[in-house]
Write a sequence for this structure.
């Protein structure tokens, strides 16, 4: 028999397949609403001006070499990244009990967090993680890879194209005590639907009551509201209440460093003594997986976070991205409701936040958009707001209008 005869052909990744379809399409009005990456108003990738500056500083700094970083990464990066997400005045940082390691972007942080829990979390019965229904598709694979079985929790209500708050609360209450729940820190992917602060508070109360563990995934800090602190509000509130948890941090979107793979995992144990033990074990795991994380992207982010002027400039760049996305939401909403008078309610377009929006259209309507109008989107009706711009928003609105009638 042939050596790999027993290997079945895996299906193509649906997002990458979508992008390939878009690239091959020669229609002049084609639109890609599948991508999870920011585009400027001319549909071009955007290297943040502050990142360009940091690159030049690095290029001119002859003291920098290509030696290995420590296993846990570039310390000036991880400590500044921890402050950025946890808040400089957070109890966990003041008490020296946040464990921070540099990871291969947000995906690597999710993997390292999952692996650590798989080895060391005191699961109540079988190894399970509760994931929002729906969630970023990769979550399922990441947890399965380390032997943790994903279980759905209620999150999205197709009837309101909003949060199924009662369902969410019901899932939290009926899960066994000490269950692990993955929470999107802000700008939920794929729905764009986040709980309000009051809803987060009610959710936190149940975490405390039931002793649940909060596995925060934060891939869009700054992207949701344009404000880094506001977007970290929920996780800071949880950790401030003493809810056990961790947070996965990515600089792919908010610094536009997608391919550089810059991220961090921050685990928040209850004491400094526990933090030392956790850190020692995470280091052992990291050593066997990647030995040492990569330097380049971490140097860029470290420079930006540790320099007052660069940090201020970065915040302005984030506002540029967030505001362009918000203006596209408003324009799409205006076209649908005021100009085209498209049937149905479209409030969710402006209520939802972050890079993505669930339009509420069904798979056959999504397919019709692609086949008839050359507009590429996932069949669940999710569109990337970053793919919209002043040149194509009317065309997209008109085709949404056609499929909605
Ligand atoms: N988590 C969520 C919810 C995401 O949407 C993404 C990216 O799309 C990631 C994590 C990880 O992205 P990266 O590994 O590029 O940081």
């Amino acid at each position: 028999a042939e050596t790999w005869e027993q290997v079945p052909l895996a299906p193509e990744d649906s997002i990458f397949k979508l992008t390939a379809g878009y690239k091959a399409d020669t229609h002049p009005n084609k639109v890609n609403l599948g991508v999870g990456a920011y585009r400027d108003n001319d549909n071009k990738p955007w290297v943040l001006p502050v990142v360009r500056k940091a690159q030049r500083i690095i290029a001119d700094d002859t003291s920098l070499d290509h030696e290995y970083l420590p296993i846990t990464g570039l310390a000036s990066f991880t400590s500044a990244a921890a402050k950025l997400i946890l808040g400089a005045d957070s109890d966990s940082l003041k008490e020296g009990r946040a464990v921070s390691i540099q990871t291969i972007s947000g995906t690597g942080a999710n993997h390292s967090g999952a692996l650590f829990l798989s080895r060391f979390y005191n699961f109540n019965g079988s190894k399970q993680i509760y994931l929002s229904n729906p969630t970023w598709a990769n979550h399922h694979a990441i947890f399965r890879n380390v032997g943790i079985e994903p279980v759905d929790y209620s999150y999205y209500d197709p009837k309101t194209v909003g949060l199924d708050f009662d369902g969410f609360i019901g899932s939290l209450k009926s899960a066994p005590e000490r269950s692990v729940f993955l929470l999107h820190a802000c700008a939920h992917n794929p729905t764009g639907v986040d709980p309000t602060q009051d809803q987060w508070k009610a959710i936190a109360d149940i975490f405390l009551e039931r002793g649940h563990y909060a596995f925060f995934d934060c891939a869009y800090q700054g992207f949701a509201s344009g404000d880094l602190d506001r977007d970290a509000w929920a996780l800071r509130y949880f950790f401030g209440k003493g809810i056990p948890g961790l947070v996965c941090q990515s600089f792919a979107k908010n610094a536009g460093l997608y391919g550089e793979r810059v991220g961090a995992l921050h685990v928040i144990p209850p004491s400094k003594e526990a933090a030392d033990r956790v850190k020692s074990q995470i280091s052992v795991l990291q050593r066997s997986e990647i030995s040492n994380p990569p330097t380049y992207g971490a140097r860029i982010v470290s420079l930006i976070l540790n320099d007052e002027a660069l940090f201020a400039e970065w915040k302005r760049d984030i506002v540029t991205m967030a505001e362009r996305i918000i203006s596209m939401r408003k324009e799409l909403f205006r076209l649908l409701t005021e100009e085209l008078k498209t049937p149905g309610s479209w409030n969710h377009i402006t209520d939802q936040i972050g890079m993505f929006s669930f339009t509420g259209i069904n798979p056959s309507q999504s397919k019709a958009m692609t086949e008839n109008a050359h507009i590429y989107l996932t069949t669940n009706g999710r569109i990337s707001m970053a793919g919209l711009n002043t040149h194509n928003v009317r065309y997209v609105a008109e085709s949404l209008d056609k499929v909605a009638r």
